[in-house]
Specification:
4-stranded antiparallel beta sheet, alpha+beta, 271 residues, N-terminal domain of MutM-like DNA repair proteins, Helicase, Ruva Protein, domain 3
Length: 271
């Protein structure tokens, strides 16, 4: 599942490659990914120019001419692939966007992905995105901002995954974020010491920056079909159930944390 590092890379690549291109046509094979019927979507997007591409949480925002946005959500994973003129398309995709220069890109969503056209004046009411918080790699997300979020009796993992609190973190990077800070995922927020909050902030930022610098998760591909470089070898406790902790040697465990599972070292991350 694409999380903040992967979404940032997609947005950067798409902005550089697609800026100033004009939509010529769209081939829709799966109408369920849209927020309107196929004819309306197709008619609306034609002749619109790509002005800017950026991210918000786990969503890709494409700012278009005529006061519209194309929003992409990769769901549980997706192949979002750019195609040059006359380049052969993949056999399987849900939607193909074609530009006037005959370049384009296809989207194949593995599960619950979305492609939505939203008028600019309706964006503030768009339920899936209107309340997404800023991300840990945003300029304004400093330690003070993080400290203001860490309040109440919620479990700390739930706070980290709450997109209304912190945009972009999912159940891939969160395990090692908590491990590096030596915090159990079920630890209540109001039980954390100030030094633990500070350690958690730096662990979160450093983990996401490291993944971004390595090019994102290995099992996904970027906008040009290149496999990314953050492989399983870089995970410390995440997905390493039964292996020794890299710090103390204790056997790594997989535990249930609400609707998700977590990987922990029971010695380094005592509850």
């Amino acid at each position: 599942m694409a999380e903040l590092p992967e979404i940032i890379i997609f947005a950067q690549q798409m902005n550089k490659q697609l800026s100033s291109k004009i939509f010529d046509s769209v081939n829709i094979k799966q109408e369920k990914i849209l927020n309107m019927d196929k004819p309306q979507f197709s008619n609306l997007i034609v002749r619109k120019e790509v002005l800017n591409v950026y991210h918000k949480g786990k969503w890709i925002f494409m700012d278009l001419s005529d006061d519209y946005f194309l929003l992409l959500n990769l769901g549980m994973g997706a192949d979002i692939l750019y195609h040059e003129k006359n380049q052969e398309l993949p056999e399987d995709y849900h939607i193909h966007f074609n530009f006037t220069d005959n370049s384009g890109f296809t989207c194949k969503f593995w599960w619950i992905g979305r492609a939505e056209l939203i008028a600019s004046n309706e964006l503030s009411d768009h339920k899936p995105t209107k309340d997404i918080a800023i991300s840990p790699l945003d300029h304004d997300f400093d330690l003070k901002h993080f400290e203001n979020l860490i309040k109440g009796r919620s479990q700390i993992k739930n706070i980290l995954l709450n997109q209304k609190k912190i945009g972009g973190i999912g159940n891939v990077y969160v395990h090692d974020i908590l491990f590096k800070a030596q915090i159990h995922p079920k630890k209540l927020v109001n039980q954390l010491e100030h030094f633990q909050i500070e350690n958690l902030y730096h662990s979160m930022v450093n983990q996401l920056k490291d993944a971004l610098e390595k090019g994102g998760l290995f099992y996904e591909k970027d906008f040009f079909g290149k496999e990314w470089g953050f492989t399983r070898d870089y995970f410390l406790v995440a997905y390493n159930e039964g292996k020794p902790c890299p710090v103390c040697g204790t056997t790594i465990e997989k535990i249930k944390t609400g609707s998700t599972s977590s990987y922990i070292c029971p010695e380094c991350q005592k509850l």
